[in-house]
């Protein structure tokens, strides 16, 4: 409960965003339930390891307290399945081993138990998934360990067994409820801010009740990107995003659908942050920027006239328009439209603007997932389009200048972009949850990540 209150306080401190935000959809399939039952067996065994109070033996003249201790809970069977329009049904079979500290010597007793519980999955007040247990029933068996021939001992042990059964019938469901509360606190970490860059973050929240079918549970989640604490708002209202049924794969643990609008928001963030703006500078002999006034002067006579001695050239690349991503089946592309200014360094270290270019760069976009982040790499498609916007050096024959100019800023621009895309954007996840063996599929207007999940204990 303290965790939930803390998360509620965190949410209250975050900026409120009223405009529609990009949507994502997370589907957890039957394979997810198999994985949860596998890794949850240990925590459930510990939750069922409840304390048993002393049994008071009234058979003698004086009350004799008999200490009882659970020494082992073995869970040979633990299954989960979806209940359509409700949540998840839990069924488990356990064998409890007790040590009864009787006189003259202790006795071990084994008791079989079947546990049935229904877990309802809903949306919490802090817009995270929340699980409740409206129904829980322990079915208690009887021990067959009575091998003591003394009828008095057998009678005592029968009473002890009834005492244990009464305790378990009350406490086992409380143990399950306690385990679920811990799990809810963990699910609450969905709303935390995850860094995207030094000054930017992303936050996911649920926007409605989850959809539960007999095959999967689906969560509609909205994503908000922040730059310097302010939300990134697209210039248009994103339409609701729904993940089509045909992308469902019940053999995969998780299926995550990411709308086109999420990519658009990330690209708008890059543009607003000025992350793709760069200055390409160099000396007269520089591998990073081999361009100088002498080389330009061979193609543009006025440059040679203004700079008879070779001087370094500086290239300023500014992204004035938001990059545009396009998603078609099995094909993702990205268009950049930077504005490039070419300046020459004068003898007194001042800068003279030579000319400016409007540039269009079409890129192939390859998406991948590492741990819990969506990452990208790009490569140039076709030729870079260059057009003179303004010139202080007269007529420029772009047919002659194009190859020289493109080679100078293409590599630094791609290096900068790929470094940023390599940082990645966190996918919807909770603390310590990783995406394993992910595959990324591109459809018309959205991206799907199909992945196994791994929880770091």
UniProtKB/TrEMBL annotation:
Residues 1-19 form the signal peptide. Residues 248-451 form the Lipid-binding serum glycoprotein C-terminal domain. InterPro entries: Bactericidal_perm-incr_a/b_dom, BPI_fold-BPI/LBP, Lipid-bd_serum_glycop_C, Lipid-bd_serum_glycop_N. It comes from the Eukaryota. Keywords: Signal. One of its GO terms (molecular function) is lipid binding. Belongs to the BPI/LBP/Plunc superfamily. BPI/LBP family. This is BPI fold containing family B member 2. It comes from Prolemur simus (Greater bamboo lemur). The lineage of its organism: Eukaryota, Metazoa, Chordata, Craniata, Vertebrata.
């Amino acid at each position: 409960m303290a965790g939930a209150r803390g998360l509620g306080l965190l949410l209250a401190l975050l900026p409120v965003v009223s405009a529609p935000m990009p949507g994502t959809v997370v589907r957890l399939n039957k394979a997810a339930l198999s994985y949860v039952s596998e890794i949850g067996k240990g925590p459930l065994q510990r939750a069922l390891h409840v304390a048993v109070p002393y049994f008071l033996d009234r058979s003698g003249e004086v009350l004799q307290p008999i200490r009882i201790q659970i020494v082992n809970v073995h869970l040979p069977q633990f299954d989960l399945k979806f209940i359509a329009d409700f949540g998840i049904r839990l069924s488990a079979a356990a064998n409890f081993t007790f040590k009864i500290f009787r006189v003259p010597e202790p006795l071990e007793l084994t008791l079989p138990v079947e546990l049935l519980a229904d877990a309802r999955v809903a949306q919490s007040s802090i817009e995270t998934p929340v699980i409740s247990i409206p129904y829980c029933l322990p079915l208690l068996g009887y021990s067959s360990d009575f091998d003591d021939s003394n009828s008095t001992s057998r009678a005592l042990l029968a009473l002890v067994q009834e005492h244990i059964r009464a305790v378990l019938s009350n406490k086992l469901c409380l143990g399950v409820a306690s385990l679920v509360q811990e799990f809810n606190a963990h699910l609450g970490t969905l709303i935390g801010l995850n860094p995207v860059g030094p000054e930017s973050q992303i936050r996911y929240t649920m926007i409605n009740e989850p959809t539960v079918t007999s095959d999967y549970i689906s969560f509609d989640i909205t994503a908000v990107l922040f730059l310097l604490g302010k939300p990134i708002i697209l210039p248009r209202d994103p339409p609701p995003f729904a993940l089509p049924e045909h992308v469902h794969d019940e053999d995969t643990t998780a299926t995550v659908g990411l709308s086109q609008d999420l990519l658009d928001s990330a690209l708008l963030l890059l543009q607003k942050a000025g992350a793709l703006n760069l200055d390409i500078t160099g000396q007269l002999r520089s591998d990073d920027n081999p361009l100088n006034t002498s080389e330009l002067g061979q193609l543009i006579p006025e440059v040679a006239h203004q700079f008879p001695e070779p001087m370094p050239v500086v290239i300023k690349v500014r992204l004035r328009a938001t990059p545009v991503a396009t998603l078609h089946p099995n094909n993702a592309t990205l268009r950049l439209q930077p504005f490039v200014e070419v300046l020459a360094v004068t003898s007194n270290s001042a800068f003279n603007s030579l000319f400016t270019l409007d540039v269009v760069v079409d890129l192939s976009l390859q998406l991948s997932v590492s741990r819990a982040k969506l990452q990208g790499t790009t490569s140039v498609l076709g030729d870079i389009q260059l057009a003179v916007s303004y010139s202080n050096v007269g007529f420029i024959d772009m047919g002659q200048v194009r190859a020289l100019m493109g080679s100078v800023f293409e590599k630094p621009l791609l290096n900068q972009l790929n470094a940023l895309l390599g940082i990645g954007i966190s996918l919807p996840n909770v603390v310590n949850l990783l995406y394993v063996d992910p595959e990324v599929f591109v459809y018309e207007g959205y991206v799907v990540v199909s992945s196994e999940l791994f929880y770091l204990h």
